Amino acid sequence: MSNNFNEEEITIDLREIGAILKRNAANIARVTGVCIVAAGVYLAVATPVYESQALLRVKQPKGIGTSLLEAMPMGNAMANTQLMNTYAEILKSRSVIVPVIEKTEEPNKEGRFIQYEDYLKKNITTAPFKDTEIMQFTARAETAEKAQQVNKMIVEGFLNRLTELSRDQQKATRGFIEERAVAAKKELQAAEDKLTEYKKANDIIAPDDAVKLATEKMGMVDKLNAENRVALATANARLASTNAQLNGEAASIADNKSIQLYNQQLAQLEGERISYLDKYTAQHPKVQQVEQEIANLKQKINSEINKVASLQAPSDNPVHQQLLAAKFQSEAEASVAQSNLAKLAQIDSDNKTDLRNLSDKEQEFVNLMRDVTVANEIYVMLAKRVEEAKVAEASVATEVQVVDSGTLPEKPAKPKKALTLLLAALLGALASSGFVVVRELLNRTIKNSDDVANYLDLPVLGSVPDMYELHKEMEKNDKGPGLLAKIWRKVWKA
């Protein structure tokens, strides 16, 4: 009973609202029309905004310090997003935007251009595409041609700025290497001068075979020692990066007997190679044979590492599996490098022991020759690096490529005429309808005989008709049926 009453009350309220809207339909239409006209006036006077879009590809840099995840196409999304945001900020920097403002905008009466922050907020937008290396750049202006011009100028300035930054970095690197090369050349010259003076002071024209052999052995040890120290530092750096990305959740190769056995065999072969190089040249058959065995064993180790990584990975995620394989590989390289350094330290100790069998004059000569050899290798290496740095500075390449240059918009992006008119019509209709409904509902005066019964709980003895509505109904009846109704009646009777 209560539910029926509530439904009836709701129905009556909805009918009342419908009646209110019907009675005020003319006013609602007027307000809606005014809103549409106002929107039309706004569209007529509003300055159109055109958008020119360009697509830029931001490539991940590849280098020694690049982690495994960054090298994969769908890998380190966080690093890719960070790089994209970095380039976006460079594109929107003052060094890129301010020259464009000065070339494309008109100054005010005081000779001042629009503020950089206001121009950036109003006219420039960058947005990366998810899971891609593409960045969309949008430039806005009052005309289509100006929008395209601004887009191209900003992209060109952005690329030039990246080139300047890269060249500055390359220039700083080249300067550092050149300074070190100059110092190395002085050290080499000083070492050679000492050796020359020692030769003159001791009447040494050419060293004997024993001295030559000792010098070559110690030079070989120094060279291999430097190579293995670099290999150890590189392996440890990669291992630290991989462990950081794995959050220390992966096992070590020490937990796998097969990889551990392979590494022991590799360390043994590397030790044999070092021992052979201590006795023979690099072209000796024994040296070449052991180097071939080392290469074959490294292939087996890599294959075993990939198998173990796929089995120990907690999921089928290829990124995680390759990280685990990189961890095992780095641990293996670090272990072999440490073993080689220990073997080289032993050989160096033996060489120093053998050196004591020479005379004091010969020992001093060997040490001076060793200093010259080491200084010469350092200088040659730095000289090569200087030339490489010069080439890199002259042919510097950025990691940004223009996929699509700035487009020429065919129509303005703002204001949207159809949407604006539609929103104006909806706003006018809803606002006016809401106003009249609220006004009628708040009007608590007695309007008909039903209100007397509902609100006053009194019997209705009689009612006075609304004269306006009565006259309106009488005029309608006096007019009689319309022309169409008369024609229909005649056709029906026939």
Can you describe what's shown?
The two termini are 54 Å apart. The relative contact order is 0.13. Helix 2 runs antiparallel to helix 13, helix 5 packs across helix 7 and helix 8 packs across helix 12. The N terminus is likely disordered. The chain has 16 helices and four strands. With 494 residues, it is mostly helical.
What is this structure, in a nutshell?
The protein has 494 residues and is mainly α. It has helices at 2-23, 25-45, 68-71, 77-91, 94-104, 116-123, 144-201, 209-246, 257-279, 285-312, 318-355, 360-394, 417-442, 449-456, 467-479, 483-493, and strands spanning 50-58, 124-128, 134-141, 400-404.
Number of strands: 4
Approximate shape: elongated
Q: Please estimate the helix content.
A: over 70%
Largest sheet: 4 strands, antiparallel
- Helix-and-strand structural type: mainly alpha
Radius of gyration: 44 Å
Return the string of H and E elements. Answer: HHEHHHHEEHHHHHHEHHHH
